Amino acid sequence: MVHTFPMQQICANAWCKQSFESTDEDLAFYRKISPTFAGETFAIPPPTQCFSCRQARRLAYRNERHLYHRSCDLTRKDILSIYSPDKPTKVYEHSAWWSDKWDPLSYGRDFDFSRPFFEQFFELQTAVPRINVNNMDCENSDFCNFSVQNRNCYLLFGALENQDSFYSNRILYCKDCCDCSGIEKCELCYECNDSQRCYQCRDLQNCSHCTDCQLGYNLHSCKNCFGCVNLQNASFCIENVAYSEQEYKELLEKKLSSYEQERKNFQQRKLSAPRKYMDAINTEHCTGNAIINSKNALDCYEVMDLEDCRYLANATFMRDAYDTTHDDHSELVYEAIGSETNFMHLFCDICWYDRELLYCSMCFNSQNLFGCCGMRKSKYCILNKQYSKEEYEKLVAKIIKYMQETGEWGEFFPVCFSPFAYNETLAQEHSPLSKDAVEERGWNWKDEEDDMPDVEKVIEGSRLPADIAAIPDDILNWAIRCEVTQRPFRIMKQELAFYRKFHIPVPHLHPDERHRRRMVLRNPRKLWDRQCGKCSKEIRTSYAPERPEIVYCEDCYLKEVY
Q1: DSSP string, 167-181
Q2: Contact 200/522 with Cβ under 8 angstroms?
Q3: What predicted TM-score, i.e. pTM, was given to this entire model?
Q4: Residues 379-390: pLDDT tens digits?
Q5: Nearest-10 crossing angle of helices 259-271, 245-256
Q6: How far is it, in rounded angstroms, from Cα 81 to Cα 418?
């Protein structure tokens, strides 16, 4: 059959019905990754859901920030887990999961051709033990998740090789940082977003190689700047005006005395400065936002070092990948989340160092698996049952033909089979829904209540002194009630030392509320057509047409700013 491209489609979800397209390049990719079993190639069909719905479906399988106390189902020790105690999931602490005290093959089962595949996989996933948190090779950093090689860290999520940092997500190679998101190789930074190689900075966004800067947007190689936007190689500037060093210090002292008001003023000042239609560095033929060192990366967001990819987010060093979120160092990937260093990896969740896996979850150092969960150093298994290579090829071919008939082939795992409630996952962060909407769709919701900490006293956030010098050591024994959410939270000893070192007030907001506010600063993962604010050229951007920012095409932006 010959298609006329692009092929227009309507999202299959009844609550969406959004129009989207599959281009000839998209279909060429689906052909490229279509697997062959027993001498027969099984075509990956075009997606039936729009990009937003596909992303939400994957993100519904990733709980980053919700941690619970429960017991290990093997050792009975008290552990921290991303799976709450009320869930049917079997959970082992990290060391027990990796031990030889249990065998994933013992959960193996035959495929039942009278029942849907997803239903059978859900039963297997519920029975096979899960790792309590994804926290590897860390030191004194137990309260972290999707975290690798961190030291003395607390509540880091999606973090790699950090030290003495806390309350942050997607940070890499950082030291002494707090309340940051999407930063790399930074030190002594507070409330910084999407920035690289910054030192002793506060409240920056989209900045790089900056030192001693505060309240900045799109600053590069700047030092001692306050309230500035769109500057390069600048120093001793306040609100984009250059001063002598002595003048700067005197004026800065006045600004710092009313910092919260200056923060509000800065949010308004940002609206008066032009922005480039896409935040990108060293890119060729790319669309989306927050893209670095990439080529042919379309509809991608918060990514780095991609080539020939589309519909990726929070991914690095990827080649030939579509519809992938939170993945790194992989090639030939489609509809996957939370994975690392894979090749030919389709419809998988939290699988690392694998080759040729289809429809698997939490499998490591394995190859040629179909519908498996919890496998380690394994090959030629289906639903955790061992087969010879020939048996594997024949049975997988038969299963795929069956899934083509049931309409399951080519679809990611349904949201209703996620081991998490929708509002526990990143799906709620990027595609928020009400409890009623979630339950109407047949998905799970979890009503949550914070346990009040066992403390000497509870203080309202609004009653905290603005001057950190007025905060007593006893605050470590108090609970603070968030001004916005009313949720209680506590201050750690090393956290208090950080605030005192930089003369920062103790926060009045719960860490989750602070995270939510950082995420609001980012553009959505969606593109709109609008006109350049200067030359009226048509541009495709993550700034919706009705937003108040001044958005320029690349040529106009470069002329204005540089």
Answers
A1: EEES-BS-EEEES-B
A2: no
A3: 0.93
A4: 999 999 999 999
A5: 110
A6: 16
